[in-house]
Amino acid sequence: MAKITDRQMTAKPGSNDKWLSEVAIWGHGSLVARITPSGERLFYFRYSNSSGDRVTYPIGTYSRDGLEGTMTLAEAGQRAKELAGLHKAGSRDIREHLAAEEASRIAARDAELDRLASEKADKEAEQARQAARKSVTELFEHWAKVDLINRKDKGAEVRRMFEKDVLPLLGSLAVADIKKGHITVVTDTMLARGVNRAAKIAFSLMRQMFRFAVDRDLIEYDPTASIRKAKIGGKDVERDRVLSDEEIHTLAKVAPEAGLLRSTEAAIWIALSTCCRIGELLTARWIHLDLIKGTWLIPAENSKNGKPHSITLSSFAIKQFELVRAINANSTWCYPNTDDSGPVCSKTVTKQLGDRQRQPEQGTMSRRSSKAQALLLPGGKWTPHDLRRTGATVMTAQGVLPEVAERCLNHTEENKIKRTYQRHSYTTEMAEAWYKLGKHLELLMPL
């Protein structure tokens, strides 16, 4: 019988199946084609199995001249020749042989997929290991970009502390190598300087950063986890430093000779006479002050509790603000930074006051004030926050109700029932409290 031709394969279908067949290859099977009434053109390999039954095994579909299929006529002939070779070699049941081949192919494919998956897992594990080998400085920058940037100051204060106390000691070390001992080296170094509260804050920030790393699988465990914060510098002691009348009088005499900026000296008296937080003062804008009406609005974004706070300025406080305005009248800010792009750093006043309260045996720090003892007072070191406490204490000494003094401090009422049901604003009482405080401070000023 002649070979099947492309002309035969492309012939118009009939009403019944049309079968085409070639001569058996070596007597061990032949190529067969079928054209169905619907136009399908199919290839088969026909052979006799071990039982003598004739088997017609499908091997593909015809493809030529735009007809979709899996193989050309020549390719079908080659496949039939391969199967005839298998039959000749002793594989009497081609189906079983091909099924075994397919199983072997699938097993090989699965093994390859497993190998690729294993390689991918190893690659990912290595990437994780390399990520863990990032330095603490690199981790800090990642944390700053993702987390700290959302804070009110964009993480500026945290960065200042880390660059001063943490990164010089840990920055170059790999995150994965950080152990409990490394953390305590940082805190112990700070405790040795006597900055116990700062050491606690640094510890809390390091814990936040390393937990950030754990959450992102950069490390497996937090090296601060087994350290109790209470053990860092001992138990927190509530600060109760209040300047006496005698100390306020002394401060008024020594402050002009302490080498302070004139605006910083005024900040002392504004903080004392309004009971504001120093950060609220240093971020104040002139638009929120009315020195004619004697009012100062601290907007919600500047207050610690996120609530706006309106202060009635005494004549004493107005005088201090007028001194500041004479210096910075052309700025949006009451206390602008050097290029007038924003407010001055919130730590500026605290640093200036601290630099002038060093004990004689501590000496003078380089590139800092030479008047290192100029603001020392008998009751010990004082801070801007102590001025706030002192102002509230003076109020109550002048007969102001403690609840009114608390309102002047813009403290949030801790008692939920009082917060819910007591809605009296105390505006009049608060104005009277600031007036009494201002009058008392005027009496303490040197003649």
Q: How is this structure best described in words?
A:
With 447 residues, this protein is an alpha+beta fold. It folds into three domains: 6-92, Integrase, DNA-binding domain (Double Stranded RNA Binding Domain), CATH 3.30.160.390; 136-231, Orthogonal Bundle (DNA polymerase, domain 1), CATH 1.10.150; 245-444, Intergrase catalytic core (hpI Integrase, Chain A, Orthogonal Bundle). 48% of the residues lie in helices and 8% in strands. It contains 16 helices and seven strands. The strands form two sheets. It has a four-stranded antiparallel beta sheet, with helices on one face. Strands 5-6-7 form a three-stranded antiparallel beta sheet. A hairpin with a 4-residue loop joins strand 5 (289-290) and strand 6 (295-298). Helix 5 (156-170) crosses helix 6 (180-192), helix 6 packs antiparallel against helix 7 (196-215) and helix 9 runs antiparallel to helix 11 (315-328). The longest helix has 39 residues, at 94-132. It is elongated, with a radius of gyration of 43 Å.
